[in-house]
Amino acid sequence: GAVPGPIAYNRGGQVVTITDAHVVLGRLNPVALLEGRMAVHARQAREALEAQIARPLGLSVEEAAYGILRIANSNMARAVRAVSTERGHDIRKFALCAFGGAGGLHAAELARDCGIGTLLIPQEPGTMCARGILLSDISMDFVQTLMAHATANGWTTVQQALEILAGKARAWLSSEGVNDSDQRLSAVIDARYQGQNFEIAVPLDGMQLMPLEAFVAAFSAAHVREYGYDAAGRPVEIVNCRVRATGLVPRAPLAKVEGGASVDGAIKERRKVYFEGSGWVDTPILRRALLPVDTPVYGPAVIEEMSSTTVVLPGQQARADEYGNLVVNLNI
To answer: Which burial class, exposed, middle or buried, applies to 328 when counting CB atoms under 10 A from its CB (0-12, 13-18, 19+)?
Structure first.
């Protein structure tokens, strides 16, 4: 769908892209994508990358191509840290879920750079967003700005605001044809210390309004987690009350996959793929649909499917679970 897109797609693109770098390094299929439906022009991508980046910088084509990927991964790692470690979370306790057509191409190095030990790549990651539209619950947020203080009178105002918002939320869900048994409401209070410019969201237990003292304690803990300190004794301002209305959508049960008989049976070909520190490595290219369930695939390996490609680095291990998800262990 990219127009003009990467040079390798031969649709008029003139500027080297990240996709071109993957093609040059053998990570993306240099002959065809979409299971053979779309031709790839690797030679054009390599010539353009050499002319535009490698030669002007005095680098080899491989160094220039991998440099592109390092910059892309660095930008993504910065975004990951912005929503994790910079908000007080220990990222080592999390798994990285990678989706989209290019998610699996970057995920192993991105997880490694961020210190994440487990990688999860769902089935058909290139179409995950489209499937999400079909399977996601419907929801809408209802918000009321209060600018009240965290006092007894202010807490009464909060309770009244939540009741009004809950009424609006239930009315909307009913208008959408959602049965009462499938309606869910959850509330969040945005608060800040007096004089601050930004609020912190403090979730409630569903719609259950906690005592004022418990709310102040929860806000204080959230402030420490977000900013690393607390301003005990400073007045707390309640800025917004939010109620999320959710209507549950019926979902078909997940189907288990059969997989193939062996890892060797899933190999479609072998080709040279470039890896940092190893250079060009003779690498098995596997069909994801034919991977046997719960059987280790040792990197380096490239796992291809219609909508996506996954790179498993040297020293890593991947397994397909019974539902077709790829689970990559980076610390073996």
So the answer is: buried
